[in-house]
Amino acid sequence: MKQTFYFLLLGTLLACCTPVDSFQMDPIEYSVIKYETADASSIHKFYPLAADILQYYPLLDKKLTFRVAAISYPTVDPNGKPVVASGLVFHPINIKSKGVIDFMPSAHIDNDGGGTDEMYAVEALLILFGYTIIMPDMIGSGVSKDLVIPFMMVENSGRVAYDMRRAAAQYLWDEFRYAIPVETTIMGYSLGGNLALAAQKYYETNHANTIKVKEVHAGGGVYDLSVAFSAFAKTGTTLYPAIPKAILAFNHYYNDLNLDFSQVFRDDLLVNYDDWFSGRYKASELMSWMSADIRTYMHPDFFVPADQQNSEFKKLQVILKENSVSEDWRPKAHIYLTHSKDDGLAPLENAQATVRKLRRAGANVAFFTYSGDHENAGIVFFLRNILRLTL
């Protein structure tokens, strides 16, 4: 009888000490690439302008110490091919974590802009307020920089974020005996906004039993690709080379697409797209060659109504719809979507269309608009969420 009691007690203790998410998720291997320990004095490494403001914020814990680790882990590309990706995990050391935030990264046209290359990013500022941050590089950055970035590819983006969460859960348990909670908040700005909704969609659709998304904060993103491309065609301008980047990524990963680029691009871009979008050049360099006038590098059929476009653009229409995050989905978690009315990178119309579609599907979506360009609206986005989670 006494022996049975001890076995029951031991079983209870083991159950209490088992990391919930790590236990429920499929095991995954990971490797630590590098790590460092830092404190609140490192605030300027994240984003100098925001740091200039936050260093005087009374709720900033200036005694906080934390660990930032770059890890690699196995995942798959859009065709299901096994690849190794990487990302960052930020975790407080001298205080109890206030919870986990899956923070998606902003866009990088070049392959050298991943978080693991720099170790600090504005997306991780909330570590300074005691939150554990999980931030994937996504394929095409970090250790996978030799691969083509699956730009705007919703299903794969969600899968890569999920595998990063699995790896981070295992790392946090092994290193700190910290069991990440089932509940999480997802955030992201710019491309990170698209990735935040992609992660939510993947988590809720495929892993609702192991991950409970509490809420999602997304801003400045391109969510409805069809509406975004139409808006770009209408204005004829954009301050970011996202259109060719997305088209080239689709052509690379959709094996049966086989676009005839003479019917998609024109002039210098048609001659140089393979080199310009090889991942070696930053967005600023590309824009200096391409200009903000889309008419100088996109085929004239890009600017006509969808039913009048040539066969190559009609093939793309199907893929744009497939990779719009609002398609065929009713989100469960509350979504807070923000967008600038003056955004020159991500059209406001695409955010408005996404809000309408999600609300029609029964989603709980709060929508806020700001003034200012894409970068300034991003600062507002980050500061607003810091205030929301700390006050």
Q: Counting H and I runs of at least 4 residues, what is the number of helices?
A: 13
Strand elements, count: 9
CATH topology heading of the largest domain: Rossmann fold
Strand content: 15-25%
Largest sheet: 9 strands, mixed
Taken from the alpha-carbon principal axes, the silhouette is globular
Low-confidence stretches: 1-23
State the end-to-end CA separation.
Answer: 52 Å
Number of domains: 2
Mean residue pLDDT: 89
Helix content: 25-40%
Order of helices and strands: HHEHEEEHEHEHEHHHHHEHEH
Describe the structure.
The protein is an alpha/beta fold and 391 residues long. The chain folds into two domains: 20-223 and 328-390, Rossmann fold (3-Layer(aba) Sandwich), CATH 3.40.50.1820; 225-322. It has 13 helices and nine strands. It has helices at residues 2-17, 20-24, 48-54, 115-118, 154-176, 191-206, 225-235, 242-253, 267-276, 283-290, 311-322, 348-360, 374-390, and strands at 31-39, 65-76, 82-92, 100-104, 132-136, 183-189, 212-219, 334-340, 365-370. The longest helix has 23 residues, at 154-176. The chain is globular, with a radius of gyration of 22 Å. The model is unreliable at 1-23 (pLDDT under 50).
What's the short version?
The protein has 391 residues and is α/β, with parallel strands linked by helices. The protein has 2 domains: 20-223 and 328-390, Rossmann fold (3-Layer(aba) Sandwich); 225-322.
